[in-house]
Amino acid sequence: MPPFERDLVSVNFALIGGATMGMAAGALLIPATRRELAAATARADDVAWVPKPVLLTWQRLTLIVASGLVPGVVLHKVGWSIVAIPTLLMFLGLVQLAYCDAKRQLLPKTMVHATTLCVTLSAVVVAAVTNEWHRLFIAVLCSAGLSALLFAINLMNPAWMAFGDVRLAPVVGLGLAWISPLALLQGFILANLLAAAVGVTLIVSRKASRKAALPFGFYLAIAAGAIILLWT
How far is CA 152 from CA 38, 94, 156, 221, in A? Predict the structure, then answer.
């Protein structure tokens, strides 16, 4: 096989393989997401039980396709590099959490903690294998910085920033700063711009009041996906 054709096969394999693995992971996580969202809703409403949220066909397909899109493109561009694992794991978790935030404006603690644990462990393992401890150190510092910032905003006014978003900050900070501290800064700014644009649009169209809460985790997920693609 000529070199060009071998390269083309390798590229297609990375693209299709990455997208397939991402979509499979997204599909497998959906039942757990519905279960944890129902449990979080029950705790928030202080009731014993609530039914699992209805997941429409288009919503299921959106979660699955979104879970495969970014991994497919990333692996298509960078190849089968283990360095991409922490960021991709963060994104897969954010896709599911974005659904929860958009559906009920809740970020189930168990899902946030599980995502944070997976991303952190993967980052430590990758740093050990590749000897990129400096990258891990910088990412942890940036993660702590973002967490402190969102925590301060929550203390000043919980209506601006719910504590669920504060709880999500460490994994978002680690996952994006693993790429670059600048990527984290860009992601945070983009998430705020998206939230502001949607908020103003809803207020102008009188579909929401000035005091209405916005699912910031949802915009963080969109911004993270866009920044990952931008930096790949």
Answer: 29, 22, 6, 21
Distance (Å, whole) CA 143 – CA 147: 6
Phi, psi of 199 (to 5 degrees): -60, -45
Cβ–Cβ < 8 Å for 34, 49: no
Tokens 């599911």 belong to residue: 96
Distances, alpha carbon 223 to alpha carbons 4, 72, 80, 208, 227, in Å: 35, 17, 24, 23, 6
CA distance 34 to 116: 19
Q: Is the dihedral of CA 66, 226, 144, 189 positive or negative?
A: negative
Give pLDDT tens digits for 10-35.
557 778 888 999 999 999 999 999 99
Distances (CA, A) of 218 to 123, 160, 175: 24, 15, 16
Taking the C-alpha atoms of residue 227 and residue 73, their distance in angstroms, rounded to an integer, is: 13
pLDDT, the chain, mean: 89
In angstroms, the Cα distances linking 12 to 30, 55, 83 are 27, 32, 20
pTM of the model: 0.90
Contact 122, 83 (CB under 8 A): no
Distances (CA, A) of 130 to 17, 76, 125, 138, 169: 23, 21, 9, 15, 26
What the block records as the tokens of 217 is: 């985790």
Question: How many Cα neighbours within 13 Å face the side chain of 149?
Answer: 15
